[in-house]
Write a structure and sequence with these properties.
The complex is a heterodimer. Chain A is an alpha/beta fold. Chain A contains 10 helices and 13 strands. Chain B has one domain (2-281). In chain B, 74% of the residues lie in helices and 0% in strands. The chains are: A alpha/beta, B mainly alpha. At the A-B interface, α2 and α3 of A face α1 and α7 of B.
Chain lengths: 302, 284
């Protein structure tokens, strides 16, 4: 993964009248990574992506996409970016093939038609029926192909797997991983936390127009709370354990069992615990979902 | 640009065919009826009776001139054609970009490497071309009955002049409607407002000959400057045609600047954008 920035955003502000959609967003996305942009509906995910493509104009801040300012050279950015909107709308009287042909022409016929057919086949997309007969999921597949068909350097995907069945979701995840293997950067927004957890190298959490957390997905999970249940071989007073930094006693089952909450590394706890006769040791990691909810409940408001 | 024009024309195929057939039928019918009217003594008697009993009606519709091919067209064809095709022009102007924006497709198109300028002018040229095609269909359809008519005959080039005059005015309605669509919350609001102005212009111009109070209002009515019989008889007044083309150009340039600077909606109807007008004076 290179240190060069695919996306560099500083102090991005966007208001819709009195509504403050983005309130000073700072974000860096490295070239070659898959970056998850997590937040509930209305948090500002779509607004941020649309600013990156110059579809809407921010009131403040700066954006650099692959080293280019999209406000000054929007076409140069769009040339190198693949975009999947949150809600895909195309001319429904056209077939998927006609839609691909039209957008390929807008790109100067850059796409390899064999690749378009390969993507369509993998997504089981019907190319010759009018789109008006398509289900929501099939329309979403058109959007996925449109975003990927010209093998862009940067993919901006707004909820890419929305409306897709689990099998197709996995196929799209594979496609994103392949794009990454081929050197592309993938920036995708989602409110499906399991998806971000499964696919993203790094994740940003946006809350009410502000980024509240940016971290490597694995680190975020590692430094999160864990619950540790310990069962001793005999009645034990282990006060020493819950006086350790980052450790808190949640419950005592009886004189032989305790439930602890541990924040951060487990190393000190395990080393201290080695002095005691332990019968059983269970640990449960907080999911990204719980971390996300914690931000939204204000428990980790930064 | 070529791709944008091509696909815009492609999406207008239905409109060209539908409106083209209607306008052609109207022109052929009007051209064919002329012989019937000339041959019918009863019809001439009715006209003469109108002149005695309802002189206002004769004045409004210039019925007295109906016994010449030019006068016949002036009364029976060119008096109503601007209203009919004017409503098409307002619809086309309002739909130029707002239809795609409300439908959510503009978002995806502009996410591709096509500039707002290319999209705007490509669409505008395509719509202008559609209007020209419809006017040419009407013109050719009027020439058609001349091949079998005994009395209905006007030189082809001279017959083109009223359509040229009409083109400048239709372009005015289209660009006005386009400007409204850039400032008003919805395409249908823009189309309706521009359509009302077409209707108002039609009635003001038509009634100004008999209602003195409307004479001054008629000076501001675009259809007052439509040259039909006069264009055929005396040639096109290029000054007025040029003034209309210049106004059209100003309206379209303002719309272009507004489109350049506006936020593109994800879909649906928007809000009032009158405040956007001041942005065209601010350096981007």
């Amino acid at each position: 993964m290179s240190n060069q920035k695919a996306i560099e955003i500083r102090g991005l502000v966007k208001n819709y009248g009195r509504v403050k959609a983005l309130r000073g967003v700072d974000l860096d996305v490295n070239c070659g990574e898959i970056f998850g942009f997590l937040g509930p509906n209305g948090a500002g995910k779509t607004t941020a992506i649309r600013c990156m493509l110059d579809l809407i104009r921010p009131q403040g801040g700066s954006i650099s996409m692959l080293g280019i300012n999209p406000q000054e050279e929007p076409e140069a950015v769009k040339e190198r970016v693949g975009y999947l909107p949150g809600e895909l709308h195309v001319d429904e009287n056209m077939t998927a093939r006609q839609v691909f042909r039209f957008f390929n022409r807008l790109r100067g016929n850059r796409s390899d038609w064999a690749f378009i057919e390969e993507l369509s086949e993998r997504l089981k997309l019907e190319l010759i029926s009018p789109i008006k007969n398509f289900s929501k999921g099939n329309k979403q597949k058109i959007g996925v192909v449109l975003a990927l068909m010209h093998k862009p350097e940067l993919l901006l995907l707004d909820e890419p797997t929305a409306s897709l069945d689990p099998l197709m979701q996995q196929e799209v995840h594979r496609m994103l991983a392949e794009a990454q293997d081929n050197g592309a950067t993938v920036f995708f927004s989602s409110h499906i936390i399991s998806e971000v957890q499964a696919v993203a190298d790094r994740v940003a959490i946006i809350r009410e127009g502000k980024i509240v957390e940016v971290a490597v997905t694995a680190d975020l999970l590692n430094r999160s709370m864990r619950q540790v249940r310990i069962r001793f071989q005999q009645p034990t007073e282990a006060e020493e354990l819950y006086k350790l930094p980052g450790v808190e006693l949640i419950a005592k089952d009886d004189s032989m069992g305790i439930l602890l909450q541990v924040e951060g590394q487990m190393d000190v706890l395990i080393k201290t615990l080695a002095k005691y006769p332990v019968n059983d040791f269970e640990t449960e990691r907080t999911s990204l979902e719980e971390i996300f909810l914690a931000y939204y409940n204000g428990e980790e408001d930064k | 640009m070529f791709t944008v024009i091509r696909y815009s024309l492609r999406s207008s195929r239905g409109a060209i065919i539908g409106w083209g057939i209607g306008l052609a039928a109207l022109a052929i019918m009007m051209g064919s009826f002329y012989d019937m009217m000339v041959d019918s003594n009863e019809m001439m008697d009715v006209m003469n009776a109108y002149a005695v009993t309802m002189p206002e009606l004769v004045e409004i519709f210039n019925i007295g001139a109906m016994n010449t091919p030019i006068g016949w067209l002036d009364v029976e064809y060119f008096s109503f054609l601007p209203l009919i095709i004017g409503l098409f022009a307002t619809g086309a102007g309002a739909s130029l970009l707002s239809r795609d924006e409300e439908g959510g497709t503009l978002d995806l198109i502009l996410a591709h490497p096509v500039s707002r300028t290319v999209l705007f002018w490509g669409r505008f040229l395509a719509n202008t071309l559609v209007i020209i095609i419809l006017l040419l269909i009407s013109w050719a359809s009027l020439l058609l009955p001349m091949t079998w008519s005994e009395y209905f005959s006007i030189p082809a080039f001279e017959l083109l002049l009223p359509f040229t005059s009409l083109f400048g005015i239709l372009l005015f309605f289209m660009t006005l409607s386009l400007l409204f669509s850039m400032l008003l919350p919805a395409r249908r609001t823009a189309s309706m407002l521009a359509g009302m102005l077409v209707g108002a212009s039609f009635f003001i111009t038509m009634l100004s000959g008999v209602v003195d109070e409307l004479e001054r209002a008629a000076d501001f009515s675009p259809l007052t400057y439509l040259e039909t019989a006069t264009a055929i008889e005396d040639g096109l007044n290029l000054t007025w045609f040029g003034i209309f083309i210049a106004i059209d150009l100003v309206l379209v340039l303002i719309s272009w600047q507004l489109f350049q600077r506006r936020d593109v909606r994800v879909g649906g109807e928007g809000s009032w954008r009158l405040g956007d007008l001041k942005t065209i004076f601010v350096k981007k």
